[in-house]
Structure formats: C-alpha cells, structure tokens
Amino acid sequence: MNITIYDVAREANVSMATVSRVVNGNPNVKPTTRKKVLEVIDKLGYRPNAVARGLASKKTTTVGVIIPDISNTLFAELARGIEDIATMYKYNIILSNSDQNMDKELHLLNTMLGKQVDGIVFMGGNIVEEHVAEFEKSPVPIVLAGSIEKSETIPSVNINYEQAAFDATTAFIEKGHKDIAIVIGPLLEPINQEKKLVGYKRALEAAEIPFKEELVIEGDYTYDSGIESFERLLEADPQPTAIYAGSDEMALGIIHGAVDKGYSVPGDFQVISSDSTRLALMVRPQLTSVIQPLYDIGAVAMRLLTKYMNKEEVTDHIVVLPHRIEERDSTK
C-alpha cells in the first residue's frame, strides 16, 4: 500500500501542512514536532511523491539527457560528467539513447518534455533545422554537449574541432609526413564536414602539401569501420604514412587492421586519434590523441543548464574548452 502524506499526518496527529514543512526542510516547525513527524515517516516508510511535489512547485528537479549511444565510451564519459554535476545540484537524470536517428531524437525530446523535466542536455551528430525549431519551442532550457549547431543560437559546450584537426595534422607534418590520411566520421555531420575536414585541409595548405581526395575516408566512428578504412587506404596511391582518426574506436580498428596485415604502428604507419577516451590507453601501442576533455564537456554543459534553469546570469552561451595533443606510442 502506498503511504501518503495524509497517513503520516494522521499517525503523527499533525496537519498535512506540518508534514509538508518537515519534508521540505522548512525551519518553522518546533523541534519536538519535527522529531515526531520524522519518526512517523521512518516508521511508515513514507516517500514523498516527486510528481505531486513537482506539480505544486512547477519543478521536478529532473533533467533529461538524450545521448546517441551510452555503450560508446565517448558518450559514456560525457554522461558521467553530466550526472556528477546533476547530483551536486540535486537533480535527477532521465537518460535515453537516440541511436543518432532524427525521428527518435525528436520523439525523445517531446517525451522528456511530457515528463515535465526542468531542462535537457542533448547530444547528436547532425543537428538540423528541425531540431533547432523544436529546441526553440521548448518550454525548458536545452544545452548541447559535444554537438555542433550551425547558427550557434542554442547553448553548447565543445572544443574547437577545426583547430584540433589542424593541430593533429600539423603534428604529422612536423614529423616529416606528406601523405597524411584522415579517417573521419559521417560527412553529413557538421563536426566532420565543416570542422575536422576543414582543419585538416588548412594544415595541408599551410604546409603547401597538395590535398588528395583518396586520403579522406568516411567512417562511422566504429572499430569495424576503422579496419575497413585501413584496407581502403592500402589501395590509395600513394599510401599514407600517417593517419588521423576521427574516433578512438576507429583508431583501434586502424591499428589492428595494420597489424593483421603484417604492418607495424608506428613503424609503417603513425596514428593520432581525436578523443582520448580510456580506449587510447588500453590499446598497444597506446594512442597519441587529441585530448578532448569529455568529462568536462558533460560537466560544464550540465552546469550551464543549471544556470538557465535557475535563471542565473549567463555571460556566454557558447562555451569552447581547451584541447591539446598527448604524445604516446602510436607516433614517434
């Protein structure tokens, strides 16, 4: 049987308003009365109804998080940052996987709003006009984490992905490489087409190295696409001596694909990845990587959302966190 506030009030011989004040930490309750009510709450096992409290306060202290795939290490680390800051600010999380499917993303967005969440953190690879239209109609604030939205009207937290790709490519150039491949995520996503690929081309141009279309391979961030991409690069003329991978999983696939074919990394091919998740340290050789502060992106996105939810002052709705390249064993 569900224990209600009425049951507690009757057992403690106080009003329901008094029970409510005790539950909500209102100081205007006599210590003896507070002690008696808390003893009855413990005895009956009463748990406040979050939905009912939300209806009364117009807040549910719940945040929706829409993420492409929690099984992906990158998104898992982002989600951990979100969850830790949410807990710090006493918000609960409703987490949903969207599978990078636009119809599912929009459905989840409306489902979250139907659950009366106080705000939403959204992660998605290809944010289009339909998304932005729904975001702008939302009655609660929405913040993007690790996601690019062209108009920059929606609050977001990222790194400078174009500069990161430029830095990775330049690192290869400074080691003497001229045939540098990029194994990138889906080119329909702005983060790849308009950021990483642009940074890669800019680095080549700055070094007066001709751009070669055959050294650009489109993958899908997965380990398997890394293996397939390496096999395609073996057919390129000339073959690359250095490969910049758009995700750690693809970088692992590239390294294992090379080893399976009898090559060595970094002896025959050098590899830089672009996330530096835990996978970068679990593979041998360990991956030289662009350090993308994944946990911090999630944490800062959640903190930004709390500012909007609590109507605090926000000085900059577009937050760009610093990145760097960590040299490990996949380059020399």
Structure description:
Keywords: Activator, DNA-binding, Repressor, Transcription, Transcription regulation. This is Catabolite control protein A. It comes from Cytobacillus purgationiresistens. The protein has helices spanning 5-12, 16-23, 31-44, 50-57, 73-88, 102-114, 129-137, 161-174, 190-206, 223-234, 248-260, 279-282, 294-309, and strands at 62-67, 92-97, 119-122, 142-145, 156-159, 180-184, 216-218, 242-245, 270-273, 288-291, 318-321, 324-326. By secondary structure, it is α/β, with parallel strands linked by helices. It has three domains: 5-48, lambda repressor-like DNA-binding domains (434 Repressor (Amino-terminal Domain)), CATH 1.10.260; 61-159 and 294-323, Rossmann fold (3-Layer(aba) Sandwich), CATH 3.40.50.2300; 161-292, Response regulator (Rossmann fold), CATH 3.40.50.2300. Helix 5 packs parallel to helix 13. The longest helix has 17 residues, at 190-206.
